[in-house]
Amino acid sequence: MTMKQWLLPSLFASTCLFSIAAGAGPIEKYSPVTADRLKNPEPGNWMLYRRTYDGQGYSPLNQINTSNVKDLVPVWTFSTGVVEGHQSPPVVNNGVMFVTTPQGQVIALNAKTGDEYWRYKRQLPDDLFQLHPTNRGVGLWQDKLYLATTDDHVVALDAKTGKVLWDTKVQDYKKGQYLTLMPLVVDGKIIVGGSGGEFGIRGYVVAYDADTGKELWRTFTIPGPGEPGHETWSGDDWKSGGAPAWMTGNYDIETRTIYWGTGNAAPWPGETHPGDNLYATSVLALDPDNGKIKSYFQYHQNDSWDWDEVDAPMLVDLQRDGRTIKSLIHPGRNAIFWVLERKPEGIKYVAGWPFVHTDVWKGIEPNGKPIVDPAHKPGIGKRVEFCPSLWGGKDWPSAAYSQNTRLVYVPANENFCGGFTGEKLPLVPGQLWLGTKPEDIGLKVRWGATHFGELQAWDPATGKKVWSHNFPKSHLFGSVTVTAGDLVLVGGTNDRMFRAFHAKTGELLWEQKTNSGIVGMPVAYEVDGTQYIAVQSGWGVDAQRIQDALATQNDVGVENNVPQGGVVWVFAVKK
Amino acid sequence: MSSPSDQTRRTIILTALATAVHASAPRSVAAEEDAPGSDLRPQKADVLVFAEGDHAGEVITPQDLNPGGPAVRAWPKDPKTSVVRKGSRLNEVVVVKLDPAELDDSTRPRSADGVVAYSAICSHAGCPITAWGKAAQGEKDVLKCVCHNSEFDPRQSAQVVFGPAPRRLAALPLAIADGSLTVAGTFVGKAGAQQGG
Fold this sequence. Notes:
heterodimer; A: 575 residues; mainly beta; five-stranded antiparallel beta sheet; B: 197 residues; four-stranded antiparallel beta sheet; 1 helix
């Protein structure tokens, strides 16, 4: 693969790469983002995907809390002018907010007033085919921002002006390669993972130099010949076996280890790629200096359900079994709530249990390998039904962990099942390669279902569900954030609501109807002594697809009327 | 909700779409895509060739198509250079044979023996048009993008009849020459998505 780099001004020689930075900017006062600030972020800032490297999605701010959240009101909004799924957290650095939108736009805003400083608009290629038109945010380092794009580039922008500083082509979008994640920034390295599991790519994680865009290392998520794990593939299956790495990893500061999730094996039916298929549907422990795989854990082998496990596990110091466990916690798309341990010798299984109904697993072996029921495993030439659906018990939206309650809050989906008939089809680079016909893919509501979405609170120490809030007419497809004010914040439903729940009891304390459905990640931040809560509302991508499916099932009684269009909402307590 | 004994209710949803199956190997595909003229939009006098299946690469005649559908996917081909214009996915079209009496006044002049052709790229988000089947509302078969469930009526200039697509598919005028379908003009309308990526 040839990697091309454009360092300005030569960037603009490319006709399909054209950007505009416009607005009232530049930003006069900007706080450079350092390694120390990322390791120990100020309570009022949100500078990483989940605020902290551990991925907990926890804000220590408590000015807005269970006592006063009823007085939460919008203080400003901002229309992005873009449709489709707005999935990124509003990133905040000392009063400056950066939001990203589908189509690779970055908007810099005054986090206190909502005034626009500048906007970067990427002009994507006309022939780009995008099943997942979204972006999950910019990474921050020093005075630069880093954007991963759906035409498979990583772009460095000047944080003050939005001007392009470098632009690196990762791979070829025409071959089904694309990026949707927020880059992980570790010690001056910009680390991204590729999407494209539905196109038969070979997944990878790659690191770039923050200053130059030069590639530093690249680790394929499917081992090549001679590498450990290659024996878990047959023939040439490894070349197109999927295992995409399309969500931001988390980082263990103490051991300097990145934990990165991987996606489905390709194509979907396991019969087309015999073997356990390392490192698909796994978590990888990576060395940030060289990308070396230190360890791994595979959540399930020989994936046949499109159950990506790309949502990186949370790093939690867990009191369990009479000791402190340096744990990894991952409520999986495969319906299993995983508790793993970060040990010096590698990742070890601790416990696992189903958090939604599943008929695929008959149990878990002592080493953590799930035991599959072959009756619910799709294969070639036979239609197979399975629970949960293709979107799993929890898809990519993030769970959160509260350091106050020591509970994990999961945006789960219950009572959905799926099914399809596997087919062996030749791979054509750049064309979808699923191993089934789309008209054969189904979503089925379980008999007797009373609800679909579930906001669940689990005690990872005991494996007990503490509370659950159920949504009778909607799935739940949005990331969760929890605060020291004991508020659990989440959108994700088809009624366009943004909600706050009591973290200890699950009581619904506040809700606000927004312009669209929320698939964005809520954040909490503070400017000049005032705490704010922000989220993007902008329905689309898979949340929309599930909604489309629900709306066709007349006996469920769900209408498909969620409007699209992105708006940044910012709330504060009314004074 | 379906009872346990009921046939499973299936909804076309799509994390996915049909895969176009090309007979040629990836290496030859790449070579074709790099050929001069392969990225040009369909040109007047181009012939159409099957994009997939057992007859991939073969010139399409009206007799190759079943009246009433299904729609087939096709590439334009320069008859002089034999270059198939695969260099851009925006060049791909869907072709379907209909009863000429069903075609409206704007569609009929662009048809040939009842055969109509449209861009295979959905105007919503750029996904491929991969399905031909009964409309969500009504009894007619229509062109479908299963990515977000948009539907287009080929009898009425591929106007949107269901789903989020903001505008009709670009139309490709057709004619018959030497028994084969040929392109009679450039796309009418814009091939591609309004917003993607």
